[in-house]
Amino acid sequence: MGRAKKVFFRRRKVCKFCADKIDYIDYKDIKLLQQFIPERSKILPRRISGTCANHQRPLQQAIKRARHLALIPFTTD
Amino acid sequence: MRTYELMFVVDPRVSDEDVVTMTQEYKNMISAGGSTVTAEENWGRRKLAYTIDKLNEGKYVLFYVSSETGKTALPEVEHRMRQNDKILRYLTVRTDEDLKRAARRQPAPGTAPASPSEEPPVGADIGSDEEEV
Question: Interior CA angle at B103 toward B101 and B105, to 5°?
Answer without folding.
Answer: 70
